[in-house]
Amino acid sequence: MKRNSKIPIWHPFTQHALQDEMTRIDRGDGAYLFTADGRRMIDAISSWWVVTHGHCHPHIVRAIQEQAAKLNQIIFAGYTHDPAEEVAQELLKRVPRGLDHVFFSDSGSASVEVALKMALGYWHNIGKQRIRIVVMQRSYHGDTIGSMSVGARGVFNAAYGPLLFDVISIPFPARGHEQTTLDALESACRHEMPAAFIVEPLILGAGGMLMYPPWVLKEMKVICEASDVLFIADEVMTGWGRTGTLFACEQADVTPDIACYSKGITGGALPLAVTLCRSDIFDAHYSRDRTRTFFHSSSYTANPVACAAAKANLDLWQDQKYRDRVASVATMQEQAIAAFRVDKRFANVRRTGTITALDLKTSDAGYLADIGPKLGAFFESRNLLLRPLGNTIYVMPPYCVTAADLDEIYAGIRDAADALA
Ligand SMILES: *Cc1c(COP(=O)(O)O)cnc(C)c1O
């Protein structure tokens, strides 16, 4: 297809032939975004799930400004700095007990690659042949080759299939079918001697906001433990309050062997990620033998400005006021979706913590169905930033969202159903 306009910037997950205009945003403040053409939008998806306390939170902005003027980048091999040390210390106080080491990187995908490399490095360094990874169907772990390999296969990665490595898949624990998932995991762990199992705890995000209960997470951990399969929790999306607790694993009383956090780690202000692990994984790499080094880095590992933002975010979580907001958003969200639970135009109306999701009943389902962009355009016209996954509409607001904002968001969703269902 020949294009007739100049397109200098190639946007992510965007089909430019179908969408040539991008909404230009000038400014963000709390739950609001201000467009160049003078509109105020409500950010109902936290700008792709990253903004937790609202855009441009003054405490985080100040920390960034101060750090940027002091030390804004330093090689992290052989060197360290206060912001990274403070973030590591504060993180270790708050993550599930048993996670003892922090490895920094700069995106969720990278934190997953690091997790996979830690797992394989562990088995390699203790001299055991365990290389396979168990994954859950419909999962999403990122868009790099390794993270795509452990994620759902489909139209998003069909072209790259030849580069992706083989994994063992178990089904999503749909309600009433949890035992099938647990049996499949147990069988994989017993018979295939995998290196690790990677999973999004409690909610599969990009896979369609699919939710499952804490007891299933707990059982999956027990099964992995019984066969010494490393348990990797990808909390890139679920971390930082989204599921109602700081981290989703807390609700199942699970300490993963390896955990990935990113997105909200800086409150959504700057890119940063961490992969945490238990001591035995670190110890398997600890040696006077240089070949056992953990061979991973990125140029901006533990960038001081990003770490200062993360430290500021951790300060906010110290404050009961910010923790209370999570509970209050969860309550407001439950109240807001109550009416949709009995609305026949919607199915699977669901909530975990601060996240709600509902499926618009339509013959036109699936991620690539036209209903997704149509809904998106409708919400845009209502000054709502919502980006449905196909016919699945979800609301994942920053925690400063008000009841009035939520009223506006759900009125938009109701009207979208009137207009498009
Ligand atoms: C967003 C996401 C990732 C990838 O994070 P990026 O920062 O976009 O690379 C990985 N895992 C999960 C569960 C995610 O939601």
Features:
EC 2.6.1.62, single chain, binds pyridoxal-5'-phosphate, arginine biosynthesis, 16 strands, Aspartate Aminotransferase, domain 2, 12 helices, 421 residues, Adenosylmethionine-8-amino-7-oxononanoate aminotransferase, alpha/beta, 2 domains
- Indicate the CATH topology of the largest domain: Aspartate Aminotransferase, domain 2
Instruction: Give me the CATH architecture of the largest domain, please.
Output: 3-Layer(aba) Sandwich
End-to-end distance: 31 Å
User: In terms of quaternary structure, what is this?
Assistant: single chain
Question: Structural class of the helices, strands and pairings?
Answer: alpha/beta
Q: Using only CA atoms, what is the Rg? A: 21 Å
User: Main β-sheet, in a few words?
Assistant: 7 strands, mixed
Instruction: State the name of the first-level CATH class of the largest domain.
Output: Alpha Beta
Low-pLDDT runs of 5+ residues are none
Specify the helix fraction band: 25-40%
CATH superfamily of the largest domain, called what?
Type I PLP-dependent aspartate aminotransferase-like (Major domain)
The share of residues in extended strands comes to: 15-25%
* Ligands, deduplicated: pyridoxal-5'-phosphate
- Which sequence of SSEs, written as H and E, runs from N to C? EEEHHHEHEHEHEEEHEEEHHHEEHEEH
Number of strand segments: 16
Number of helices: 12
What does the average pLDDT come to? Answer: 96
- In total, how many domains does the architecture comprise? 2
Based on Cα principal axes, name the global outline. globular
